Amino acid sequence: MDLRKTLLCGQCFRWREVSPGVFTGTAAGRELTVTQAEVPLLAADPFWRNYFDLETDYAALAKQLAKLHPRLREAANYGRGIHILRQEPWEALCSFILSQNNHIPRIQGIIDRLCEPNAWGTQPTVPTLGSTYGLRQRAAQRPFPPPEVLAELQVEDLAGLRCGFRAKYVLDAARRVADGRLPLEELREAPLPQARAALMQVFGVGPKVADCTLLYGLHRMDAFPVDVWIGRAMERWFPGVQPTDFGAAAGLAQQYIFDYIRSSDKFLTK
DNA sequence: CACCAGGCTCCGA
DNA sequence: TCGGAGCATGGT
Question: How many CB atoms lie within 10 A of CB A128?
């Protein structure tokens, strides 16, 4: 696993490179500071081993994708080392709602403000962490606010976020998750089309945000967000390749392709 | 000053 | 079903 690529490729918004090679971030109420050299320590810790998806054979998935098209092989090579994190579903949904028509630095800023201590009465969720396996971790000082907390707020309360028109979307999502109309955990098992449709019930959630939530929040590796923003250009850039060809590696393909496109002088211009 | 950002809703063909 | 404007905000 390549720590920098994995944490900064745009699949999550709460990790920073605080100094060269040193990454600090938060997941599920835990805060961690880690370097590439310390990745083996992550494998010893049950929580982080799961979060970084260290038990999945990404090389095998990449090899499978590489066979589909030369350009995809190039993209997979470029993205080698990226793991799809197992983020919390609610945080992922909320994050990708905030990501729409927005760019990464500003998304990070909005999410920072959303998680500010005591902004909505949020508190560290893991008071003690027990064994740390030599890892520099502690309870998160700025945990992600749970849906139950946000569900009680009004759009005016979110004015400080400066997230614009997205505020009403976040609140609708929070209320639906909090009152059970949107049972996120159940979407792990649901057939992909149903899971997508369930997410798109939320005001402000379209196909792209829905698929990103499925992939990054529920680790549905069969979800394929790239289908949305490449759309019909699939045939143009990856002739002969159908979205169904990606199979269980669809999500990974999306991440590879996105990163590759972003790096390669935007060869997929509209 | 335009133009755009890991889109979506709404509206009018 | 499809296309295009508008959307809040901030960076370039």
Answer: 7
